[in-house]
Amino acid sequence: MKSVCVYCGSRTGNDPTHRALAQELGTIMGQRGILLVYGGGRFGLMGVVADAVLAAGGDVEGVIPEALHASEVSHDRVGTLHIVGSMSERKAKMFALADGFVALPGGTGTLDEVIDILTWRQLNFHTKPLVLVDQTYWTPFIDLMSHTDDQGFGHGDSSTLYSVVNKAAGAIPTLEAAPPGATTAPIESL
Q1: CB of 64 closer than 8 Å to CB of 31
Q2: What is the spatial distance between Cα 53 and Cα 109, in angstroms, rounded to a whole number?
Q3: Which residues span the domain enclosing 152?
Q4: How far is 120 from 125, CA to CA, in rounded Å?
Q5: Is 184 domain-assigned?
Q6: Residue 177: phi, psi to the nearest 5?
Q7: Do the domain assignments include residue 118?
Q8: What is the DSSP string of 49-89?
Q9: Confidence at residue 178, expressed as pLDDT on a 0 to 100 scale
Q10: In CATH, what number is assigned to the domain containing residue 43?
């Protein structure tokens, strides 16, 4: 893994363990020289993970829509900040820059990003791995994915599209243990 896209909230949430997860993951990535690709924000878990990568000597690339950049929510210390026109362009750019994906707790934006990556993988547009961190937080999502399978709307066992770990320390080894994969269709064409 040379680059990992981290999806997470623009808020820190109510549980202090979420902040600790973001801090630990960012520190690990920075120490290991893994490029952080993320949404470019300076607030919430996004800011925590970016700050931790930077503090550990790592590199960060943010991707933020012009409208959010203009309202001054972008992180001012990232190495590279890609300013794009829309949320769809943001997701495509983040996908293109990353070798794999980690999802920390977050809100609807995080859920949107995770669903897109899972859908693209289900449709065989890519085989890049995704790891959800903090099973307690993600349990309702995992249950919903199982429910879609049980109701006949899934394409097999949706749990094969992602891995789940409880600790930030397990995220990178889990990504690295996934079989190597490559994009089979350009995401920009979706």
Answers
A1: no
A2: 22
A3: 3-178
A4: 5
A5: no
A6: -80, -15
A7: yes
A8: HHHHHHHTT--EEEEEEHHHHHTT-B-SS-SEEEEESSHHH
A9: 87
A10: 3.40.50.450
- Count of structural domains, the chain: 1
Distance CA 175, CA 101 (A): 8
Is the CB of residue 164 less than 8 Å from the CB of residue 131? yes
Task: Name the β-bridge partners of 38.
Answer: 62
CA–CA separation, 87 and 4 (whole Å): 19
Contact 50, 30 (CB under 8 A): no
In a domain, 188, yes or no: no
Residues 6+ apart with CB under 8 A from 134: 17, 18, 21, 104, 105, 166
* pLDDT score at 2: 97
Evaluate whether residue 186 is within a structural domain: no
pLDDT at 176 over 60: yes
* pLDDT, tens only, 85-104: 999 999 999 999 999 999 99
Give the three-class secondary structure for 44.
Answer: helix
State the Cα–Cα distance between residues 80 and 27, nearest whole angstrom: 19
3-state helix, strand, coil in the chain (%, to 5): 50, 15, 35
With tokens 């961190």, the residue in question is: 133
Instruction: Pick left, alpha or beta for residue 123 (phi over 0 → left; psi -120 to 50 → alpha; otherwise beta).
Output: alpha
Q: Which helix (H) or strand (E) holds 112?
A: helix 108-122
* CA–CA separation, 89 and 94 (whole Å): 9
- How far is the C-alpha of 179 from the C-alpha of 159, rounded, in Å? 16
> Position 91: which residue type?
K
3-state secondary structure of 134: coil
